[in-house]
Amino acid sequence: MANAFEAEITQLAAEVNQKIARIRETYEELSTLEHTAHSRDEMVSVTVGRHGQVRGIRLNPRVYRTLSPSELADAIMQQVNDATAAVSERSRQLLAPLMPEDVPLEQVFGEHATLDAFLPAPVEPAP
User: What residue ranges carry the coiled-coil annotation (predicted)?
Assistant: First the structure.
């Protein structure tokens, strides 16, 4: 009986250690996550990091001759949006296997995420 219990505990500890290792690997990958989006004409490139922060903007020197200021602003914003969307999607792909099956990823990391995904319903006091 004691040996079976010890074997079960050893197996559970190994599973927990594997999950912890996977979480660490995922967060390491997330910490270095970035994406660069390029305009079709290669005039504008924008790199964003994991949280959507702009890390770099590269403009082809010819861009000033081909685009008006408003067109350039639109092109930059389009690449920021494209790069941010790509980073968000990759983050979702990395985090999805770590989430409990009954908790939708969008509920935890989506635009309208709340703590409700992690907390139980309020407990009503007994009358």
Answer: 2-33
Residue type, 37: A
Look up the pTM and report it.
Answer: 0.72
Tokens of 112: 């309208």
Which structure tokens are listed for 18? 């594997």
Distance CA(98)–CA(100), nearest Å, equals 7
According to the 3-state scheme, what is the secondary structure of 52-97?
Answer: CCEEEEEECCCHHHHCCHHHHHHHHHHHHHHHHHHHHHHHHHHHHH
Per-residue pLDDT tens for 58-91? Answer: 999 999 999 999 999 999 999 999 999 999 999 8
Contact 85, 72 (CB under 8 A): no
Calculate Rg over the CA atoms of the chain.
23
* Domains located in the chain, CATH noted: 34-117 (3.30.1310)
Stated length of the chain: 127
Q: How far is Cα 54 from Cα 83, in angstroms, rounded to an integer?
A: 9
